Amino acid sequence: MVIPERPGAFKQLYAKVYPRNVTEFSYRYNNGEEGGATVFISVETEPGAGEAEALVRNLKRDGIEAVDLSDNEMAKSHTRYLVGGRPAQPIQGEKLFRFEFPERPGALKHFLDCLPDDWSVTLFHYRNHGTDVGKVLTGITLPSDLAQAEADSAWAAFLEAVGYSYTDETDNSAALFVQ
């Protein structure tokens, strides 16, 4: 969600979610940029009661940009840890992918070896969850001089070579927190 960059805004936001228990809150000052500060907040709600949807509706009614990310895997695994760490300007042509890396030595090396030398990694977030796969979120850009068909073909070849399970998250609503 986005709140205004002014004194008292956090307190006003808290008043709108109280008495719900706040279980996570991430915020970073956005240099007074127009539009306000991006906030990631988790609150306890009653499951199945429509409470989360009602809260988002009420926040929007009060002029706060809000999105319910309760069922969003990218938000749960990655975005919550990256709030505040985004570029000053959107990165042209950046694609976001969520991967499941096998938890074994050499998995990252394999990924990087498959990555063409002229591609840029613009974001990389990994978290070990104590399972047989590691959850990875990565942002990648290709050279800007590639034609669309050539870029599409290069993406397909890269993803096939890596061979890890992936999801294209470029258009995910949670991406606004890292782009």
Describe the structure.
This protein is of the alpha+beta class and about 180 residues long. The chain has two domains: about 1-70, Alpha-Beta Plaits; about 95-175, Alpha-Beta Plaits (2-Layer Sandwich). Helices cover about 30% and strands about 25% of the residues. It is built from five helices and seven strands; from the N terminus they run βαββααβαββαβ. Strands 5-6-4-7 form a four-stranded antiparallel β-sheet, with helices on one face. Strands 1-3-2 form a three-stranded antiparallel β-sheet.
Structural class: alpha+beta
- Tell me the number of helical segments per DSSP (H or I, 4 or more residues long): 5
Q: How many domains, as an integer?
A: 2
Per the CATH scheme, the topology name of the largest domain is Alpha-Beta Plaits
Q: Record the strand order, biggest sheet.
A: 5-6-4-7
> What is the CA-atom radius of gyration, in angstroms?
19 Å
Mean of all residue-level pLDDT scores: 81
